[in-house]
Amino acid sequence: MKKVFAVALAMTVAVGMLAGCGSNDSAQGGAADGAITVVSREDGSGTRGAFIELFGIEEKNDAGEKIDNTTDTAEITNSTAVMMTTVAGNDNAIGYVSLGSLNDSVKALSIDGVEASAENIKNGTYAVARPFNIATGKEVSEVTKDFINFILSEDGQAVVEENGYISQGNTGAFKSTEAEGKIVVAGSSSVTPVMEKLKEAYLAINPNATIEVQQSDSTTGMTSAMEGMCDIGMASRELKDSELAAGLTPTVIAMDGIAVVVNHNNTVDNLTSEQVKEIFTGKLTDWSAAQ
């Protein structure tokens, strides 16, 4: 009986050692298995626009027109929050989100061996970054001007930095004109979180103002600003030539990275830029090939 128990114990230890070796390989970044589930954002999303441009997923055809080559099999989400929830619920999913909005529900991958972080965006080693723009039309109310002055001030840019975004400098200490009135801000779901923080900080200084933040996407934000439906449009990308021609004036309020994210159960920790492009264009379809 003792002999049988000893043999069983030895087999258990051996299996455990083999499993341990496998665990070590995974911890060192072994590839996951299974078909890749590509998750992207909706048309009009500034994050999608910046992502496909930065990774070369968007290319020009012979006529000079920009073509988005995102695979037709991609699952489409309509906000940063839904993107993270979708990736968090699918072991084989891959998507992308604003770095400033990233939370612990998903895992951010290193790209070309560089970690996605505000520090690496500042030092230029993580190149997957884009501007956060606000845009106004020709008529700007006094209270809107005051709020924008706050955003660009030392006080406003401190809020930007505190929330994980990258300041591009500031205009110094803020002194409010205490203007009265309502400000409607509309657009990008990526810019919305920091805009809510800026709103909160500004209203503590100027209680005479009211601010309504409407979350949608960058293109809707720019259209709303052009049509006078909002005072400030938000875009997580550069403005298009057509938007500038329509009379919008852009102002960069921060820089933000784009994090490529996967499920925490995915053992892949790093992808090259080319691999990301191949995944999102449908050329690389299985995690076993992402090594």
From TrEMBL:
PANTHER family: PERIPLASMIC PHOSPHATE BINDING COMPONENT OF PHOSPHATE ABC TRANSPORTER, PHOSPHATE-BINDING PROTEIN PSTS. It is found in: Cell membrane. Keywords: Lipoprotein, Palmitate, Phosphate transport, Signal, Transport. Part of the ABC transporter complex PstSACB involved in phosphate import. Residues 29-154, 177-289 form the PBP domain. The keyword Signal applies. Belongs to the PstS family. It holds the Pfam family PBP_like_2. This is Phosphate-binding protein PstS 2. One of its GO terms (biological process) is phosphate ion transport. The complex is composed of two ATP-binding proteins (PstB), two transmembrane proteins (PstC and PstA) and a solute-binding protein (PstS). GO terms for cellular component: plasma membrane. Residues 1-19 form the signal peptide. It comes from the Bacteria. InterPro entries: PBP_domain (IPR024370), Phosphate_ABC_transporter (IPR050811). It is a lipid-anchor.
